[in-house]
Amino acid sequence: MIAHASLNRETINVDLAAKLLQDVIPSSEARTLSVDTISRTVASYYHISMEEMKGKRRDKHIVFPRQVAMYLIREETASSLPAIGQAFGGRDHTTVLHSYEKISTESREDQRLQSDLRKIREMLYSHLCLWRSGRDGRGDCARRRDRCTTLSRMHNLSGL
């Protein structure tokens, strides 16, 4: 930062530091995934409705995506177990913990699940890059692909 400021005859201030460090230190807006965004993305990926995702049915084709969503929400947000449970129809925090542990354990061995998690994360973070790019599509991510690559590396999109 000092070298840059000296070479460009600029004064070091907060704005300059933020500009120079934007690719090194992720901004808080780079990690603005919500419980709703993750839930909707997982529901869409597995072709189930949000009503099924939050409902009481325990059919395998519904339970598994619900568990994946709970796992990803726990991994990608700062939401507590009780808050995640509330978002899924008032489920108990122990249900969320069971879901998290189950998907975490299965993802170590199951390559299809690893692939699913990677694809869902790619969907989630590509959405953030599109959102950050602005209305004209020529914003930060459109001009600076390395920012999106940094997000990919940060969140292990290239491999679990």
Short description:
The chain is mostly helical. It is built from 10 helices and no strands. It is elongated.
The secondary-structure class comes to mainly alpha
CATH architect. name of the domain at 35-110: Orthogonal Bundle
Unreliable spans are: 133-160
**Main β-sheet: number of strands, strand sense, barrel status?**
none
Text of the CATH class of the domain at 35-110: Mainly Alpha
Oligomer: single chain
Tell how many strands the DSSP assignment holds: 0
Instruction: Name the shape in a single word.
Output: elongated
How far apart, in Å, are the first and last alpha carbons? 34 Å
What's the order of the H and E elements? HHHHHHHHHH
Give the rounded overall mean pLDDT. Answer: 81
What is the CATH topology of the domain at 35-110?
Answer: Chromosomal Replication Initiator Protein Dnaa, Chain: A
Descriptive key words:
single chain, 160 residues, mainly alpha, Chromosomal Replication Initiator Protein Dnaa, Chain: A, 10 helices, 67% helix, 0% strand, disordered C terminus
Q: What does it look like?
A:
The chain has 160 residues and is mainly α. Among the domains are: 30 residues, no CATH class; 76 residues, Chromosomal Replication Initiator Protein Dnaa, Chain: A (Orthogonal Bundle). The longest helix is centred in the last third of the chain and has 22 residues. The protein is elongated, with a radius of gyration of 19 Å. The C terminus is likely disordered.
